[in-house]
Design a protein that fits this description.
By secondary structure, the chain is mostly helical. It has three domains: about 15-110, Arc Repressor Mutant, subunit A, CATH 1.10.10; about 155-240, no CATH class; about 255-330, no CATH class. The protein is built from 13 helices and four strands. The strands form two sheets. The protein has a two-stranded antiparallel ribbon. The chain has a two-stranded antiparallel ribbon with strand order 3-4. The longest helix has 25 residues, at about 280-305.
Length: about 325
């Protein structure tokens, strides 16, 4: 590709390469932001929708561009009700990403420190040089303390990591979806795959994808997240839930046995301690009830005939009170000597 450009001497708008190259914003959102940035002071009191209408960005196109600017920290709105009951909306559009606290400070009149200190000479002197390509620091890469310019390409180990199962694929989808909850948790595919194994450990402990997403995006720091990868790695490790309790094995049921009791042929399953039992519970209870009825009938017949009840040893006085037994022995006279 051939490239030729002449820097304008007047009537231009400065834009950071980070803003122009970011894939997070659509072309309508970028054009709208740059258009408002180059407006004179007397035109900045107009609502953002009016500027968008002047550019031909209306309807759903405007709503989509506005939603992207709000989601990624470029646009903030505040609605307030005045003393007479009328509602007013105040908008703040920035050419850099602002946290909610920084946006409130700008609204209150607190200036933010400049991102780059101004040069000492204007214009810059020296001979023209060949344009350097690729010097812009990537937007979405992790910024470690000792790595001010991290590599733009993933390491061989990270590039070779491919999701191999449904759990890995589900964990990757959860990590990539965190950008919808907050723009500071935006992850690239290579960054998300660094954390897949840690997220899979949550799924294997019975945590649902929605529950893991809720834990990762809740209670974010007020000052924002500087490194999405480092922040999420810390949460995945520190908030890992405990392993579920092991399920106790259940003993197999006893085999069915043919009941030898009366009635139709039927099967039953012996309970604990009933090994060798050949009759089911209802048949055993029925047999016990029949035996009791038979013994009770014999007892009533003996009482009606005046035969004293005897015990197993043949003692006719086994169930007679002791006073009556003594009287009966005295009346019978002395026994054989």
């Amino acid at each position: 590709m051939l490239w030729h450009a002449i820097a304008p001497s007047r009537g231009y708008t400065k834009a950071a390469n980070e803003l122009v190259r970011t894939p997070r914003l659509s072309s309508d959102a970028k054009i709208l932001l740059l258009y408002v940035q180059g407006l004179p002071d007397d035109r900045r009191g107009v609502a953002l929708s009016e500027h968008a209408r002047a550019l031909g960005i209306t309807g759903r196109a405007y709503q989509k561009a506005k939603k992207l600017l709000v989601a990624h920290g470029y646009l903030y709105e505040w609605r307030e009700q005045g003393g007479r009951g009328f509602w007013t909306t105040e908008q703040l559009l920035a050419n850099v990403v602002l946290t909610p606290e920084e946006a409130k400070g700008v609204r209150a009149g607190t200036p933010l420190p400049p991102a780059v200190s101004p040069g000492e000479r204007n214009p810059t002197v020296g001979h023209p040089r060949v344009r350097t390509v690729g010097r812009q620091e990537p937007v979405d890469e992790e910024r470690e303390k000792n790595a001010p310019r991290p590599p733009t390409e993933p390491t061989p180990d990270e590039a070779a990591l491919v999701t191999t199962g449904p759990e890995e694929a589900q964990a990757e989808r959860v990590l990539l979806s965190l950008r919808r909850a907050h723009h500071s948790l935006h992850l690239g595919v290579a960054e998300a795959r660094k954390l897949v194994r840690l997220a899979v450990a949550w799924l294997r402990r019975g945590v649902s994808a929605e529950e893991m997403r809720r834990v990762l995006v809740s209670d974010l720091p007020a000052e924002g997240v500087r490194s999405a990868v480092g922040f999420l790695r810390h949460r995945l490790v520190q908030k890992l839930p405990e392993e579920p309790s092991p399920v106790r094995p259940v003993a197999p049921p006893a085999p069915l046995v043919l009941c030898t009791g009366p009635g139709d042929e039927h099967l039953f399953r012996p309970g604990p301690g009933e090994d060798g039992e050949t009759r089911c519970g209802p048949c055993r209870r029925e047999a016990a009830r029949a035996a009791w009825d038979e013994a009770r009938a014999a007892q009533l017949a003996a009482e009606a005939a005046g035969v004293p009840e005897q015990d197993a040893d043949g003692d006719p006085y086994a169930h007679t009170p002791w006073r009556e037994r003594v009287a009966a022995v005295r009346q019978a006279g002395p026994g054989p000597t």
